[in-house]
Amino acid sequence: MAEDFGKVSIDELVDKIMRKLEEAGGSSHLSSHTYSDQPILRKGSDWARDREHPDGRVERDGKSISAGKAQTTEPDGSHAHSSRPSRASRMQGQTSTDARKSRATSKWHALADDWLGDYQPAGDFDDDLWGRPLGSGTGLMAKVVPEVKLPPTLQRLRELEGSRGEDGRPLRGGPLFVAQARLASDFVDDCPYQGTLPYRYLPTYQVVSDRELRGYFTWRASWREGKATDAPATFAMLLSYELINGVGCEPGEPVVSELRRLREACRAMDLAGRGPSVTLDVSHLIRDYVVVHRLDPRLATTEEERRFGHAVRVLRDAEGSVLCRAAVHDHKPEDAPAMPSDEILWAAMGALSSYSPERSPFLRAHAEQAAHVGAGVFAQMSLHCGRRRKVCFVDGLLGFSNTHPYVPFVGVPLEQPPTLEGSGDIRLTDADLVTFRFGRWCIRRAYERQGKSRDLGRIIHAIDCAMREEWEFGRPLKPRPVPGYLQKMIDREVRSEHEREQEEERHRFTVDLSKLGGIRSAAATTREALLVDEEREGYVPGAEATEDWTQPVSTASATGGDPTPSQAEAQAGERDAPPVVATVSPGQPAPVSPQPTTGAEAAGAAGETAPYGLDPLELALVRALLAHEPAPPTPPGSPSVEMLVDSANEKLFDLEGDTVLEFGDDGPHVIEDYEEDLRGTLEQ
């Protein structure tokens, strides 16, 4: 009896027990003829014969037969069972049977205690697995679950289960749970639960055992301190019910933050394969709490859900706009919603499609062209389904828009039924709307099936195939079967887009700004070769060469006579600016007045913040040309009109992206297409 059964397998242990039973009880306990001479289904008459003939033999017509086969024969040759014994005989037989069972059970208990007295099971087991003890002793079959003593706080919590409320009615359901939760809101225990925690559906304090209750408050204290990393299903649901009722946390966003932390812990346990999953239940509680308390919908939805809802709304609006503008059936043009752009519509189609355009190198490289083709195919399919089918195009892809009842906090023990705070509806996403009307909750969804659409994926794949073939892309795709009418729509849109792109390419020109420096250098060389000696040496008339030239350069003085309105305006700007002074000594050539080389330097030298860095001479020239007057002559030593036109064009290139001033038969003038823009720029 000193064998170590802790190292013996279960099969070997059962074999040894069966052999001991055979040695101790002989054939009275085990029979090798089980089911051999007895029917599988035994009736009351069979049990009665067994009590009357314990040896199992019955004498009939001088022959001994088995009791299980004993039957009576009727005069007509049919067999009949023996008559039913009286009530007294049945009671007497039952008493003898119970006595035999009691002796067998006592013998079994004695043998089990003898064999398993020193056996200790490996690991921890839940107390519910042991059940009621079958015998006496200290072995496996006599293990007794120790009782747990509750602290005073938990004793008062248990006492609330039989108490009554202020209205005299017994506390039960939500009011009872809230009262118990508030009583033990700050209670901390130090009795962790040992063993496997049983899962309880919709748990409350009332349905858990005392050991589970103390284990929960111990785990809750560790959770609040941030030390607990696991979240058993029963404990997680109890904690979520407390948070929803405002116990242990401030109502509002702090409750949502705690619930989201609890959801992450539950998701970690799901990944580890530990216990039943309640992650989805906690997610529903977060959504319900955000809806009832009118919090930010982004707290209850993921980025993927919001992206899906936005894509559904874009497709619905695009289809409605197409049908209303075409006046299909009951749609009216004045009811047409705003049509989204081709790029937005294409992005929405990609978000709902099982074939993502982002995974195609061709569609990524030709995103603009693909967007135009996709939008065109979508419009044609919307018109086709709207005119020839009973189901619209988007309904066929995502299902019908539907409204169904919505019940927040299902199964959660609450003190009062939930109601929507304030007025108005709650929009969780662009495709999900929660309403509360006349005490009834409803949720309206613009879709029926949430997920990627395979039909839309086949359409985008067909677009990719057709565009690769039309653009002669190096790697063609293997086509998938699509309806003939749909393929014709795709081919028509692809050809149209390709022709439009080729037409734009023919009218496109490219300006290489890197060559402007060489062009300017060549122009300066040509200008220098065309200058006469007087101009190259800075020729000054003799009447003005005998005195110092200390007057500022002015356009009006060079032209002589009364200045025109545009010249007077230019002179006013020049008077406000510091004059550019050049000192000329008698007998010396007049130096060329310094000219700013950049817009910033010109503005600083003129004292005026001219648009686009125009200097006073360039500004006077542009204003004169806007007034449809001839170009004013330049002062001696200053750049020529041609050079002023070139420098002004260079500075005004950022305004229109093109040449603004050009030379004609009558001299320089402003291009008519840019005249209004240039005038508005100078008037600012």
UniProtKB/TrEMBL annotation:
<feature type="compositionally biased region" description="Low complexity">
    <location>
        <begin position="597"/>
        <end position="608"/>
    </location>
</feature>
<feature type="compositionally biased region" description="Basic and acidic residues">
    <location>
        <begin position="43"/>
        <end position="63"/>
    </location>
</feature>
<dbReference type="Pfam" id="PF13208">
    <property type="entry name" value="TerB_N"/>
</dbReference>
<feature type="compositionally biased region" description="Polar residues">
    <location>
        <begin position="548"/>
        <end position="569"/>
    </location>
</feature>
<feature type="domain" description="TerB-C">
    <location>
        <begin position="497"/>
        <end position="679"/>
    </location>
</feature>
<feature type="region of interest" description="Disordered">
    <location>
        <begin position="542"/>
        <end position="608"/>
    </location>
</feature>
<feature type="region of interest" description="Disordered">
    <location>
        <begin position="22"/>
        <end position="105"/>
    </location>
</feature>
<dbReference type="Pfam" id="PF15615">
    <property type="entry name" value="TerB_C"/>
</dbReference>
<feature type="domain" description="TerB N-terminal">
    <location>
        <begin position="145"/>
        <end position="280"/>
    </location>
</feature>
<feature type="compositionally biased region" description="Polar residues">
    <location>
        <begin position="28"/>
        <end position="37"/>
    </location>
</feature>
<protein>
    <recommendedName>
        <fullName>TerB N-terminal domain-containing protein</fullName>
    </recommendedName>
</protein>
<dbReference type="InterPro" id="IPR025266">
    <property type="entry name" value="TerB_N"/>
</dbReference>
<dbReference type="InterPro" id="IPR028932">
    <property type="entry name" value="TerB-C"/>
</dbReference>
